[in-house]
Design a protein that fits this description.
The chain has 150 residues and is an alpha/beta fold. It folds into 2 domains: 34 residues; 114 residues, DsrEFH-like (Hypothetical Protein Ychn, Chain: A, 3-Layer(aba) Sandwich), CATH 3.40.1260. The chain is built from 5 helices and 5 strands. The chain has a 5-stranded parallel β-sheet, with helices on both faces. α3 links the parallel β2 and β3. The longest helix has 33 residues. The radius of gyration is 22 Å and the shape is globular.
Length: 150
């Protein structure tokens, strides 16, 4: 009798276990659909114009998206005071325009310290975080951001 019941109990458990997770999965999907959150990772300032163009296109297509740009290493260069691209054009105007549209720019303090720079070296439109890579991990793991790297 036990041998007959064991397969039946196993089948019953397998059949009902997905039901216990159906509601949280549906709630998570609804929450994700409610707010689009994206972290753009920039670790090379030579890609800053491309990244900002991607972000501008992203905002145009999805105006309510919450976008955070996290920089570290060579990626912080375009967010330093008086930074200019290879054509001599300042980044400040484009950064300020994106900031006005809700984009948040973050700079790695570890990188600043490694270059012997303090927070005042960073343009006013950006915030300094303790670690760029830790910030990306935190945004993904704890706040549900998706990751994009231009």
């Amino acid at each position: 009798m036990i041998r007959t019941l064991t397969p039946l109990l196993a089948a019953l458990l397998l059949a009902t276990s997905p039901m216990t997770h159906a509601v949280p999965v549906a709630e998570a999907a609804a929450a994700a659909a409610a707010e689009e959150k994206v972290v753009y990772h920039v670790n090379d300032a030579s890609l800053a114009r491309i990244a900002m163009r991607n972000i501008q296109n992203h905002i145009t297509a999805s105006p309510d998206a919450r976008i955070v740009v996290v920089t570290h290493g060579k990626g912080i260069d375009f967010l330093l005071n008086d930074a200019k691209d290879d054509k001599g054009e300042p980044y400040q105007t484009q950064v300020a325009g994106l900031k006005e549209r809700g984009v948040d720019f973050r700079v790695c303090r570890n990188t600043l310290k490694g270059r012997k720079l303090d927070d005042s070296a960073v343009m006013m439109d950006a915030n300094v975080v303790p670690s760029g890579v830790a910030e990306i991990g935190r945004l993904q793991a704890k706040e549900g951001f998706v990751y994009l790297k231009p």
